[in-house]
Design a protein that fits this description.
Chain lengths: 407, 475
């Protein structure tokens, strides 16, 4: 309870129960309107300004030893009689509103940490052929496959609502696997362009690797500041077994190649890939961390959750004590490979590399000072402006015409 | 539109991009520095200021930090601003006859391109003469040369390029491997380049030089007079060029019979000659004849613009086509260059510069001719030919006056070599187009281009020394 890193790890994997007052009261009511699944829990601020998105609705949370309660206007986490005072981010008020086209905002986007996550094209072509990743609950969360994509206007509206409310600072767009050239990245372009045109924000995209590197160039050029191609499982056999669609349509090697190429295009620390902890031997995850960090890719280590609606809903949650050393290894690997750890700010759904220090005993004073600088308002402004300048300097439009030779 | 990401470290990119503002600051400081210097003895205050403007314009023309045309506009602003000449006069020079001749020539060329008449000519000539590898190469070399007599060499290169590409495809020539493929593209480029210096129509630089001559000395060169002086040199260069082509690039195939079939196919695609093409051809022919025989009396620009009016009256061209084909930037650039040249001459800056530089160590007319043509042929490899003329003409005309050389000679000596770019792809669009075929490496153009450049220079000097005096041009 004293170590915010460990507490975040525990809450992420086991979730939290809510006291009767909180379950029945208005404080957290809106949280239950949001989509379930990753990021669909309640954002809690632990000591040291560590943010965690603790699942509250999934079946496995009923077994959680942690209880969130409110006492004299303050929030506490209680376990075995021991209490820690925490902050709770109220669920966004806009969850209760609708877009101009009548779609409930809560179905359009989810806020976790400082991030607003939107899935404008709520579809994944792995599902119809039963080639989806076995841990994924997207099919049940997103609704029927082939559902109409959101309009650009709706997406702009939700970003506007979230920013007006001051509840999010960054936008993340999530895309399932789509057949065809670029695997769907081209269809995100109108959304990305509209967001970048209307808001001064950093934008992250999680997608599947396109078949050609030119699409990665294009992804950066269109305004994406951070890209994630989630490998999820490092071990080749486990990867093929758990992710048949990824194996068949993209291939593990393409994930690694695309990540390596993206790391040469995007700024240090902005290319990420999930390695889900608990679905493969820990040695294999460690190997994955080493491989990715050597390519200057930041491995993110979400802890496996048996999400309702996924094929692995009954699967065992990994033991916190067993997996804790992985986060220490993550911190050290990122540090040794000199990857920028400061991009992730108020991340609540997984343990960031800088938070890995809680598992090493290293106080990391210099890193924490830098990280806090990045987190400040001035730091945020500088980060956004530098990202813009970098893109302006790096992106060149290539015209095929003779006129382009400027003769 | 595709994108590419610059993978160099950010600091390298920043450094490579920051030279531009740095350069502007340096140019401004140098400009102010020159202005703040005491005016040298023998130079008027206006002349002193004109040299400062000349320095800025030369630097900007050479570096192309801003488009050539915008540098010219800057010259027109600075000249009255610094009291070198009043605004009325500066802007009036912009309306020089040469500028309107260039405009008329551009519109006439646009009508030829738009109607497809020029392409039809090319197809007819190539299928008529391209029976063997040698005759095909000769046709690909000489036809663009001839066509460049009558329309912009850049336009000729652009229209010939797809035809030559098709020939290489039909013959299954391999890029970078086939010597014959290389020869075809180099022949096309050299043909355009050499042919482009023969008349006022091959490149707008020739009328620009004549415009500067007129504004500075009051003398002019007629269309026929130009051809009479330059065409013999062009013919000698074409002969040498052909010999060099077959010497540098082996003819490594025996049969080109497939080409005729492809060209016939293209001709069928174009259909029969339309009335529009016939009329444009007729207007063009009459225009050229009038230029040749009545050019001095009626004025070249008047004839060009009258023909343009006829094209519009007969509805043979639309304004939209003019906007598409006419290079307005070049027209602006030439107007400014003429104004600057005039300001340098009238303020005494050109004479003073000549006395302080070339006149100190080149007092013989022959040496002056050799030097200026050499400067022109070297500079044009790296910078716009119009900029070469704008830079060299004012000084050269001043030297000509002092040494008693006919200023027309200096006009030929600078204008002709300024069009002769043989070595580098960036020197002229004709070379760039040939290079873009993918058949050539830089070295394929460099060595033959260097030898061709030296040959052209020597030919020009010899023609200047032995032939031009026969035409009454004093050296």
């Amino acid at each position: 309870m004293k170590n915010p890193g460990f507490l975040k790890l525990e809450l992420s994997s086991k979730g939290i129960r809510l006291s009767k007052e909180l379950t029945e009261g208005k404080d957290l009511r809106a949280a239950f309107l949001a989509r379930a699944g990753i990021g669909g829990g309640i954002d809690i601020i632990l000591p040291d300004d560590v943010w965690v998105n603790a699942p509250v609705r999934e079946t496995f949370t009923k077994e959680s030893p942690y209880l969130l309660l409110k006492d004299n206007g303050n929030f506490y986490i209680e376990k075995g009689g021991e209490r820690v005072e925490v902050g709770v981010i109220p669920p966004p008020a806009f969850y209760e509103k609708k877009t101009s086209e009548g779609t409930p905002f809560a179905q359009v986007g989810t806020v976790h940490g400082g991030y607003l996550t939107i899935s404008p094209i709520a579809s994944c072509d792995f599902f119809p052929s039963y080639e989806n990743c076995k841990f994924c609950s997207a099919n049940s969360v997103m609704g029927p496959v082939g559902k109409k994509a959101l309009s650009v206007r709706e997406v702009v509206e939700i970003v506007n609502e979230a920013f007006e409310e001051g509840i999010a600072e960054f936008v993340q767009i999530s895309l399932g696997y789509l057949d065809g050239e670029g695997h769907g990245i081209a269809s995100l372009e109108p959304y990305i362009t509209a967001i970048k045109k209307n808001f001064d924000t950093l934008l992250a995209v999680e997608a599947h690797p396109p078949d050609k590197d030119a699409w990665i160039d294009r992804t950066y050029a269109m305004g994406v500041d951070s890209i994630a191609y989630h490998l999820d499982i490092y071990n080749p056999e486990r990867f093929a077994n758990i992710c048949p669609g990824k194996t068949r349509h993209i291939g593990r090697d393409r994930y690694l190649d695309a990540l390596q190429y993206a790391a040469s295009i995007f700024p240090s620390g902005t290319v990420t890939s999930n390695l889900i902890v608990g679905l493969e031997p820990l040695e294999s995850t460690t190997e994955g961390i080493d491989h990715l960090t050597k390519m200057e890719v930041v491995p993110l280590l979400p802890i496996f959750k048996p999400l309702d609606g996924s094929e692995y809903r009954g699967h065992k949650i990994p033991d916190t004590e067993d997996i804790a050393p992985l986060f220490a290894h993550l911190y050290n690997a990122v540090k040794v490979n000199k990857i920028n750890m400061n991009w992730s700010k108020h991340v609540s759904i997984f343990i960031t590399p800088i938070e890995g220090r809680y598992f090493t005993g290293d106080q990391a004073k210099l890193e924490v000072t830098l990280y806090n600088l990045y987190k400040s308002k001035i730091g945020g402004l500088a980060t956004r402006e530098i990202a813009k300048l970098r893109r302006k300097l790096k992106v060149r439009e290539v015209e095929g015409s003779f006129d382009a030779s400027e003769l | 539109m595709a994108v590419a990401i610059d993978k160099r470290p950010l600091w390298v990119i920043l450094l490579s991009k920051s030279y531009r503002p740095l350069f502007f600051v340096l140019i401004t400081l140098a400009f102010l520095g020159i202005l703040s210097l005491p005016t040298p003895a023998g130079l008027s205050q206006e002349g002193h200021r004109a040299i400062a403007v000349f320095f800025v314009c030369v630097t900007l023309w050479v570096t192309t930090l801003i488009p050539l045309s915008i540098t010219s506009l800057l010259a027109i602003i600075l000249i009255p601003f610094l009291g070198i000449m009043d605004s009325k006069k500066a802007y009036a020079l912009f309306g020089n006859e040469a500028v309107f001749f260039i405009l008329g020539a551009f519109i006439l060329a646009a009508s030829l391109m738009k109607s497809g008449l020029s392409t039809r000519f090319a197809l007819a000539v190539l299928s008529r003469f391209g029976k063997t590898p040698k005759t095909l190469l000769t046709a690909v070399y000489l036809f663009p040369a001839f066509l460049s007599f009558w329309m912009s060499e850049h336009a000729v290169a652009a229209l010939m390029f797809p035809i030559v590409v098709e020939i290489t495809k039909v013959l299954e020539l391999r890029p970078l491997r086939s010597d014959y493929g290389k020869a075809l593209f180099v022949a096309m480029a050299w043909g355009c380049i050499v042919g482009g210096v023969a008349t006022f129509l091959g490149g707008a630089r020739n009328p620009l030089a004549v415009g500067m001559l007129l504004e500075t000395t009051g003398q002019s060169i007629g269309f026929f007079e130009w051809m009479l002086a330059v065409v013999p040199a062009v013919i000698i260069m074409l002969v040498f060029g052909y010999l060099m082509l077959i010497w540098f690039f082996k003819i490594d195939l025996k049969n080109v019979s497939q080409v005729e079939e492809a060209l016939v196919h293209r001709k069928i695609e174009m259909g029969k000659v339309t009335w529009e093409e016939r009329l444009i051809g007729l207007v063009m022919l009459l225009t050229i004849l009038t230029w040749m025989f009545f050019g001095k009396k009626l004025g070249l620009a008047n004839i060009a613009l009258a023909s343009v009016v006829v094209l519009f009256v007969l509805d043979l061209i639309k304004w939209k086509d003019v906007e598409e084909y006419v290079n307005w930037g070049i027209i602006l650039m030439y107007g400014g260059a003429i104004t600057l040249g005039y300001a340098l001459d009238k303020s005494g800056a050109a004479a003073w510069t000549a006395n302080m530089t070339i006149m100190k160590w080149a007092s013989s007319p022959i040496l002056v001719i050799a030097l200026f043509s050499l400067f022109s042929i070297i500079l044009t490899e790296f910078m716009s030919n119009a900029a070469v003329i704008a830079i060299l003409m004012p000084v050269a005309l001043s030297i000509a006056q002092q040494l008693g050389i006919d200023p027309k000679v200096m006009t030929f000596v600078i204008a002709v070599p300024s069009g002769l770019v043989f070595m580098l792809p960036m020197g002229t669009p004709a070379c760039a187009i040939a290079y873009s075929s993918g058949f050539l490496k830089i070295k394929d153009m460099l060595v033959p281009g260097l030898i061709m450049g030296i040959t052209a220079w020597l030919v020009l000097i010899l023609v200047g020394l032995f032939y031009w005096p026969m035409l009454g041009l004093k050296i």
